[in-house]
Amino acid sequence: VQLVESGGGWVQPGGSLRLSCRYSGLPFSGYDIGWFRQAPGKSRERIAVHEATGTSYYADSVKGRFSTSKDDAKNTVYLQMNNLKPEDTAVYYCNTGTTYRGTYYGTDSWGQGTQVTVSS
């Protein structure tokens, strides 16, 4: 399994970015894609999951500002980030996994991450 994130960069507070997670090598199409982030000195935080069913769920810290979508033809899941705040600054990663009874179980497959910096 290979995951490649892209789309990070610098943006001012209130701005928007769209991250991409291109995946390949999945043995079947039933995997969820989880989005995580890790800020300096902090542990990795799960912020969104795009389920194989097409539904998504989000951490409270990003709910209402971030959304996910998927393009099956491009094997890509997107994370649209709006109204960005300085506390959103982090390296963002995607991960494959599955959701069972409301709990996300991630695999060991991670991308290399993409840096998002929100500052004025």
Layout of SSEs?
Elements: E1 2-6, E2 9-11, E3 17-24, E4 32-38, E5 45-50, E6 56-58, E7 66-71, E8 76-81, E9 90-100, E10 103-110, E11 114-118
Parallel strand pairs: 2-11
Antiparallel strand pairs: 1-3, 3-8, 4-5, 4-9, 5-6, 7-8, 9-10, 9-11
Q: Explain this structure to me?
A:
The chain is mainly beta and 120 residues long. It has strands at residues 2-6, 9-11, 17-24, 32-38, 45-50, 56-58, 66-71, 76-81, 90-100, 103-110, 114-118. The mean pLDDT is 94.
List keywords for this structure.
120 residues; 7-stranded mixed β-sheet
What's this model, at a glance?
0% of the residues lie in helices and 57% in strands. It contains no helices and eleven strands.
Number of helices, where a helix is a run of at least 4 consecutive DSSP H or I residues: 0
Task: Compute the separation of the termini in Å.
Answer: 37 Å
Radius of gyration: 13 Å
Shape from CA axes? Answer: globular
Helix content: under 10%
Biggest beta-sheet profile:
7 strands, mixed
Mean pLDDT: 94
Structural class: mainly beta
Please trace the helix and strand order, writing H or E for each element. Answer: EEEEEEEEEEE
> Which residues form runs of ≥5 with pLDDT under 50?
none
Tell me the number of strands. 11
Q: Beta-strand level of the residues, as a percent range?
A: over 45%
